[in-house]
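Reminder: ligand-aware prediction takes two inputs, not one.
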Amino acid sequence: MTLNITLNRTIDDSYPIHIGPLSLIEFNGKVAILTNPKIAGLHLQTLLGQLRAKEVYIITIPDGEQYKNWESIEFILDRMFDHRLNRKSLLIAFGGGVIGDMGGFASSLYNRGIDFIQIPTTLLSQVDASVGGKTGINNKYGKNLIGAFHQPRAVHIDPSFLSTLPSREFGAGVAEIVKMAVTFNRDFFEWLENNNLQHGDNLITAITKAVETKARVVEEDEKEQGLRAALNYGHTFGHVIENETKYETYLHGECVAIGMVMANELAVVSGLMNSDEAMRVKNLLAKYDLPLSYTIVDVEKFYQAFFLDKKSADSAITFILPRGIGDVEITDSIEPAIVKKVLSTFSAIDGGLF
Ligand code: GLY
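Here is what comes back for the chain with glycine:
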């Protein structure tokens, strides 16, 4: 006998993304703010000044990608139980991508899922990670391999939090902005070539453009069945670099920058992109002092690590390759020999073809 279960999905997971000075957040219940000691020291008073709730608890975890793991999730969940949060409670993720990904994941697990709000404080999380509901952690097999799609109830992007951002982290965020432009918006890329993000209102314009791009992609393909995979441009290579360097040498966005350079070289060798355009991307990234090369010690090991990438099916690796600036191809038909040839150009110092 077979019985059917009919689920009438009427849930609307739409949410606002506010860009500008942090507005008042009112909540009729318990709120846990997940943050790290650095952000708490710099900005917690600003958030508390804009928060009205019945009870507010602060949960802090150490800063850094190396803490994005099960141990931290257990710690966060334990604190949520200690504070007796319930299904109607709210978690606010207040920090960079690590805090956002873990706060989102912990809130997807607690009591089988409670609401959360993203208040990103780094450029990278403001332009990418805080929007779209990807939450999760890393493990020894790779980056973001465990997690859930759990959309926030709202995202509050206040660029004034960036005034205390170290310059390396600024560059790491720019890498994700460049990613949005190369994959989906040629005009935006040209605008980025001509406007310095450290001047005037240019940063707010770039954040808005990047978030608009991301929002449209997520609306079309929330669960990454197709189009959204394009946002992993640079990440297929970048995740391997992050894992090889144990998340200690580079910031995530720095690995994405190197990964975009590698992806572009593969795109050039595959006849998808011309070398002048690959050079324009490299030049734009260089303006923000991003690392653009990485010495691959063992090409075969690097290649095998691609198979842990979530986008790759059992026997083929999925690459996100630009078909020129502003257009992208998601492909699993690049010959292994070509990939390894491109990787081998990175096995010398100052690697790469272009
Ligand atoms: N950061 C890529 C995505 O959200 O799909």
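Residues 170-344 form a domain with the Dehydroquinate synthase-like, alpha domain fold (CATH 1.20.1090.10). DSSP finds twelve helices and ten strands in the chain. We will return to this case in the review session.
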